[in-house]
Design a protein that fits this description.
This protein is α+β, with helices and mostly antiparallel strands. The chain has four domains: about 5-165, Beta-Lactamase, CATH 3.30.450.40; about 190-355, Beta-Lactamase (2-Layer Sandwich), CATH 3.30.450.40; about 450-585, 2-Layer Sandwich (Heat Shock Protein 90); about 620-735, Rossmann fold (3-Layer(aba) Sandwich), CATH 3.40.50. It has a six-stranded antiparallel β-sheet with strand order 8-7-6-11-10-9, sandwiched between helices. Strands 2-1-5-4-3 form a five-stranded antiparallel β-sheet, with helices on both faces. A five-stranded mixed β-sheet has the order 12-13-14-16-15, with helices on one face.
């Protein structure tokens, strides 16, 4: 007999398992469609996604041997269904779940040219952002029933989660690739080099980021009000001759950007009023095959416009906000490169004119060194902010979604109705999710260790020492003298990553089982050394040859020197190695104002989170977490558990304090990291109320420092979010029993 629950669990398991290994969204779509066809015993299937313009595109289609022309016609019908231009079976499937065993007689007709259908069933794919696509199957022998429709609807939820996860994963990979390219360009701004080559690379990166066909970089001479092309890609000779050296007022788009000091975007040159008074410019653009263009000013750090970076498209186009943010970073890099080149020219001219004025020349060199130091600090800050941003995405998005998914696994079917085999399958899937969370957590900590930001350099070095000993077997001894936590978070980050790199050099090359890290404060300087008694090496030959070990030390020495510090290597073959870093504790730069990763939440308890009345004899629970999906996952977990009831929910610590006083729950499950008021402060305030409520901390941070802070604030227990659901249930019972 057809067992819908077993078929559903097996199908969902396969979708989630395949989602972990599929490389592309298209590959995942084909697997999801195959699972839907098998689960509904269908002979035909279609999986589509709604693109940015609202059109329905093929993601996966069965029966690829169908006549291509007829398939193309059916695709055209589907493409217009979302816009409401046609009313057919696919259009209805985007709006509601339905089935019909007489498609040809159904009010929503079969699209013209569609392969023969004798049964059809469609379900929209809906996420928090609206309808993202649809899944449809057809031609099951004997037709479909309401039970079949329910199976497809249940599968649709899993398909949505898998597709959203894959899109997030792909978006993150693209972000990492783009950021790596930006960092590579930024790294080349520090050493001396060919600025023209660097500007060409910046222009090519802009074309890639914006999917543009052509582009140019103009240098602006403000005295002559003249623009000169210094880098270009893909532009025709007629365009270059017309715009290579031109007055700013003859270049419509560039002139508008120069006059306003703001980016100018023309999605379609044929419809833009910019060219109304300058037909020759429009004619040159059209002859060069340009239909859309944007120009962004290159602004120096003093606010002077140095030039423009322009990109062109062969078709009407308007770049998105994400693309323009990447372009702004490239514009900043191009301005820095031009400004550096102009500074170099100015220094050379000054040297020729004022060769005898030694004092002034020395002062200029000192200013130049300070400029390089500030640039190095800004690059370090940008790198650390990017690490923190990516780590925040991993922690606040992916880990939370996976944790919520883990809690909702057991909500698919009551546990008492599962046989041993099904329980094992769910447990195996729970284990895979737990392993994924652990891998993401390790990556997040490698990018931006929370302990460094929360507790400072010394605590971070202690944590690093334990991690290296546990994972690599290297016994690290840490000693400190004086207050060695730097005044600057940027310096702390640089020193932490330097010590980490040096310890990994010991692991890879020293051939020893122990190392010592010593940190000393000497006035405004911090001195950190890493010492081992391993193989040792010849520092001079190692740095000159730049081999595997030496190149890392060479790069580290360069970075420390740009920060105004120094690095000394003492080593000899067979006598171990000592590397000593010295830097100032503070820097002259501060983080730019307005940068904040914390979003303020409303102080009032929003609808849906207020307290609810409950029956007697149950453990009354208040859920506190700033992630809606996490609260929903926990609520679903307790919904099917006898003896538990969720009486209220809060999205931040301040709401939790308010609700704790109002409803006096038995247990509060308290997230640690939240806006407005974090879980540690909320726990302390609730504990002072002495209401008898017990608090259990929940966090993605599985470290001793966070655990101790939460317990010291008054929590009765601390549970890692990635832990099995059974461990959370057991902890609640244990806390209640005293």
């Amino acid at each position: 007999m057809f067992n819908r629950h077993e078929v559903l669990i097996t199908a969902i398991n396969r979708i989630f398992l395949e989602a972990l290994t599929c490389e592309t969204e298209e590959q995942l779509g084909r697997i999801c469609l195959s699972v839907a066809e098998q689960a509904t015993k269908s002979r035909f299937g279609f999986l589509g996604k709604v693109d940015e313009t609202g059109k329905l595109e093929d993601l996966a289609v069965s029966n690829p041997e169908q006549d291509p022309c007829r398939m193309a016609g059916r695709r055209q019908c589907r493409s217009q269904a979302q816009a409401g231009q046609l009313h057919d079976l696919y259009s209805r499937g985007l709006k509601e779940a339905f089935f019909t065993n007489q498609p040809n007689a159904h009010p929503d007709n079969v699209p013209a040219g569609h392969p023969q259908l004798h049964a059809f069933m469609g379900v929209p794919l809906s996420s928090n952002d609206g309808v993202i696509g649809m899944v449809a199957v057809g031609n099951r022998d004997g037709g479909y029933s309401g039970e079949d429709l329910q199976v497809l609807k249940d599968l649709a939820g899993a398909i949505v989660q898998a597709l959203v996860h894959k899109r997030t994963e792909q978006a993150l990979a693209n972000e990492l690739a783009n950021n790596k390219r930006l960092q590579e360009i930024s790294a080349r701004l520090i050493p001396e080099g060919d600025v023209d080559v660097l500007l060409t690379e910046i222009l090519k990166a802009a074309l890639d980021f914006l999917n543009a066909d052509m582009g140019s970089i103009h240098l602006y001479d403000s005295l002559a009000s003249q623009l000169r092309i210094i880098a270009q890609h893909g532009l025709k000779l007629s365009y270059l001759k017309f715009f290579e050296r031109g007055k700013a007022d003859t270049c419509c788009v560039c002139g508008t950007a120069l006059e306003s000091g703001q980016r100018t975007v023309v999605p379609d040159v044929n419809t833009s009023e910019i060219f109304a008074d300058n037909p020759p410019s429009l004619a040159v653009l059209l002859k060069a095959g340009v239909r859309a263009v944007q120009s962004t000013p290159l602004v120096s750090r003093s606010g002077q416009i140095l030039g423009l970076i322009s990109t062109h498209w062969r078709q009407p186009h308007e770049p998105g906000q994400r693309e323009l943010r990447l372009l702004d970073t490239l514009a900043r890099q191009a301005a820095d490169a031009i400004e550096r080149q102009q500074t170099q020219v100015a220094l050379l001219q000054s040297h020729e004119r004022l060769e005898q004025r030694v004092v002034e020349r020395t002062l200029e060199l000192q200013i130049r060194a300070r400029q390089l130091q500030r640039l190095a600090l800004e690059l370090s800050q940008a790198e650390e902010r990017e690490h923190e941003r990516i780590a925040e995405i991993l922690h606040d998005d992916l880990q939370q979604y996976l944790s919520a998914l883990k809690f909702r696994l057991w909500d698919l079917l009551p546990e008492e109705r599962m046989d041993l085999e099904l329980k094992q399958k769910v447990a195996d899937l729970e284990g895979l999710i737990h392993e994924s969370i652990q891998k993401i957590r390790r990556l997040s900590h490698e990018l931006s260790p929370p302990v460094l930001k929360q507790n400072g350099l010394v605590a971070a070095l202690n944590w690093l020492s334990r991690e290296i000993q546990e994972k690599h077997g290297l016994n690290v001894t840490l000693s400190t003298q004086g207050e060695v936590n730097p005044d600057s978070a940027t310096i702390a980050s640089v020193l932490y990553r330097a010590v980490r790199e040096l310890l990994f050099n010991v692991i890879k090359h020293a051939g020893t089982a122990s190392a010592a890290v010593e940190a000393v404060r000497d006035g405004k300087w911090i001195r950190i050394s890493v010492t081992d008694q391993g193989k040792g090496f010849d520092p001079e030959n190692c740095v000159i040859e730049k081999n595997d070990a030496g190149f890392g030390l060479f790069s580290l020495r360069e970075r420390i020197s740009y920060l105004g510090g120094g690095l000394v290597i003492k080593s000899a073959l067979g006598k171990g190695c000592r590397v000593e870093l010295t830097v100032e504790t503070s820097v002259p730069l501060k983080l730019p104002s307005g940068i904040s990763t914390t979003q303020r939440m409303p102080l009032a308890v929003p609808p849906g989170l207020q307290a609810q009345k409950t029956g007697q004899g149950k453990i009354r629970i208040l859920l506190v977490d700033d992630h809606t999906i996490m609260r929903e996952g926990l609520a679903n977990l307790f919904k099917g558990k006898e003896g538990f009831e969720v009486v209220a929910q809060a999205a931040n610590g301040r709401q939790a304090v308010q609700l704790a006083a109002e409803v006096r729950p038995d247990i509060i499950l308290m997230d640690v990291s939240m806006p407005v008021m974090d879980g540690i402060e909320a726990t302390a305030q609730i504990s002072r109320l002495q209401t008898g409520t017990r608090i259990i901390g929940l966090s993605m941070h599985d470290d001793d420092e966070t655990r101790e802070k939460m317990l010291s604030a008054g929590a009765s227990a601390y549970i890692y979010k990635a832990a099995p659901a059974g461990e959370l249930i057991a902890a609640i019972k244990q806390v209640i029993s005293g």
